[in-house]
Amino acid sequence: MKQLLLFFILFWHVSSKANDECVNAIQLNPNANCVNVSGTFNGATLSGAAPTCATNSSQDVWYRFTATEQTMSVNLSRVSTNSTMYLAMELYEDSCAGN
Predict the structure, then answer these.
(1) What is the C-alpha to C-alpha distance for residues 99 and 95, in angstroms, rounded to an integer?
(2) What is the DSSP string of 29-94?
(3) Quick check: 13 and 43 in contact, CB under 8 A?
(4) pTM, whole model, 2 decimals?
(5) What does each C-alpha distance from 25 to 1, 4, 36, 53, 73 come to in angstroms?
(6) Exposure of 45 by Cβ count < 10 A (0-12 exposed, 13-18 middle, 19+ buried)?
């Protein structure tokens, strides 16, 4: 039984990503100070078709937050030295299919 459990855990870790789909978006909690959140694309897949502005897209991850101010900012930065990875961001209002 231990071998089967270990295999399942390793398989899940490599092939699954908790926030790979919009319905499982990780909640962010903005406040007056910067809130840094680390994430990874390891195990992520592309949800739906690649956008026309990034046709070579192959992975995405989802986060969600509720705006607490009229004007807010979200920054995306790479900490990896992988120079072949390009990052982009889309914002949806109210739901996974929002504007």
Answers:
(1) 8
(2) ---SS--------TT----SSPPTT-TT------EE----SSS--------S--TT--------SS
(3) yes
(4) 0.72
(5) 33, 29, 16, 23, 18
(6) middle
Retrieve residue 31's tokens. Answer: 């406040």
Q: How many residues does the chain have?
A: 99
Give, as one character, the DSSP assignment of residue 59: -
User: What's the pLDDT tens digit per position in 53-98?
Assistant: 888 888 888 888 888 888 888 888 777 666 677 778 888 888 888 8
* Closest C-alpha to 67, from 91, 88, 87: 91
Query: Rounded to whole angstroms, how far apart are CA atoms 19 and 11?
Result: 17
Q: What is the pLDDT of residue 81?
A: 65
Comparing CA positions, the residue from 81, 93, 87 lying closest to residue 59 is 87
